[in-house]
Design brief:
20 helices; HD domain-containing protein; HD_domain; two-stranded antiparallel sheet; 12% strand; HD/PDEase_dom; flat; dGTPase activity; dGTPase-like; single chain; mainly alpha; three-stranded antiparallel beta sheet
Amino acid sequence: MLMDVIGRHVPKVEVSKMRQALAAALVHDLGHGPFSHAFESVGKRLGLKMADHEHVSDVLIRDSEVATVLNELGSGFANDVADIIRGRGKKNVYRAVVSSQFDADRLDYMRRDRLMTGTQHAGIDFKWLIANLQIASVPFGVDESSIGEIETFVLGPKAIFGAEAYVLGLFQLYPTVYFHKATRGAEKIFGELLYRTIMLIQNDSLDATGLPNNHPIVRFARHPDDVESALGLDDTSVWGALPLMCEARDGAIASLAQSLRYRELGKCVDIRERVAHAIEDSGKADDEIDACCAKIKEKLTDWLGRQDANMPPIHLDEAQRSPYKVVEETQGPLDRINIYTNGGKLVDLKQRSAVVAAVKPFKLFRVYCQRSDMETQKVVNAIVDGEIGNARQ
């Protein structure tokens, strides 16, 4: 549908560019490992480049059977597709199909994730948004100096309410789906399980993990720079390993594997929610909430550092999602929603919508403890209550 918009509004459509954009939209996520971004977080902790889905996607598109197929569309076609995904080269409307506020990926996963999770939040008028999409040249620059223009998707003036629903809908998916306490709790367990398993394997302690020598996780741990070992990992290989890891000699691995296999997720202590409730009642502002959470995190981190490193008694979880980036925080017109006013002036959505401008970022700060570990829960609650008491004085 985005290509139809380009076809309607671009006088001289570049067919080769359209094909590259279509291909890029289809293959840009090829490199995702098991459990997607949760696996990437493990890779960052261990410094594993083959856990970075953008790097793996780039390798596959440039040098695999994927490249062979893509290059049938023209010499160098695969490299051109990879460059679009990596953000190299000229920014234009074809690049906007792959990476922008209205890229194909975002418009797809918003509706797909809403459907698959069953949530009634985040509904958008997709057809109306597409019907009101136009293409215009938007100026960009550094500070106050203009350095050029970029052709990108913009919205007509009638789409103001649809645009608001789109921004708020995407924003709502985070607290209700992506940042849901059960989702994040499971991701924390998965991350700790895979982190410790890979660490033990790389330290020649395979026997403690419960895994056989030829398991895909073992191959990846031993050859983390090999793309084939990365491709051997998927959700199924991890789920299939859980019964084996439940019998691991390493107590931490066995406990974490059992938690995932039997969905015995940790007890969630929503620290920020508790702090916000207490401090907002006292009439204090967000800055005080942030400061109180920071002090709690400092004390929890200090306490955690004195515990058994092999089996952390708590998992800290901190994240933030802004409903919409202000112009100064974006990398240009592709990273914001441009919309026409009724007078024909093209402006940033936040300048026209009081609703979007008023929504505050969603922040979370939680701790997950084992449900049976009452002593740890007492420690966490004592630290939280103590700092809340200090903040309210």
